[in-house]
Amino acid sequence: GAVVSQHPSRVICKSGTSVKIECRSLDFQATTMFWYRQFPKKSLMLMATSNEGSKATYEQGVEKDKFLINHASLTLSTLTVTSAHPEDSSFYICSAKFPGDMETQYFGPGTRLLVL
Amino acid sequence: GQQLNQSPQSMFIQEGEDVSMNCTSSSIFNTWLWYKQDPGEGPVLLIALYKAGELTSNGRLTAQFGITRKDSFLNISASIPSDVGIYFCAGQKGTGNQFYFGTGTSLTVIP
Q: Which one of A60, A105, A108 has the shortest CB-CB distance to B99?
């Protein structure tokens, strides 16, 4: 299958700092990427849809000023958690929509964020 | 947002047994995807279904797109220890729309 990478795989930061997470599609171009958040033993919660060259679409209840998304190229989307707080600690996963008529998403390996 | 109901929530089975799990929704979907997630990892795509009634296999895994388009099923035959993980279904109502994820089925295989 198609490969999607995320960096970093885990990060620990102090409260009040900002953290940037990168999501890359390694062997295909993705005009659309998605950012999810997952709590322990829970399903994936869609945070926002990232479209190359345009503003991201955020799900209800997700603060766009807190979770900044940039989709600068067809292979890279970034999520920046601004002024992180302990309640932002979570597992963040991106996915990329595989191009073509058939709708398929491939996920990255996830980023574990711990805010102290 | 909409969530898909997966059943069962968890399963404990003996190695070699077959496994069945399903995913149901109150809405009609045009695409169903099945993923497996290991602890601390991102979900890995197992099978994609695009047509009502479609039956697709991937090794020991077989998934079906329900004819009502409101459900999907995943079967694992002759389970092995590495099948352990959480299985998620995902459904999409139409091209370009978001995918809604199921609540997950946690599978434990006892050697």
A: A105
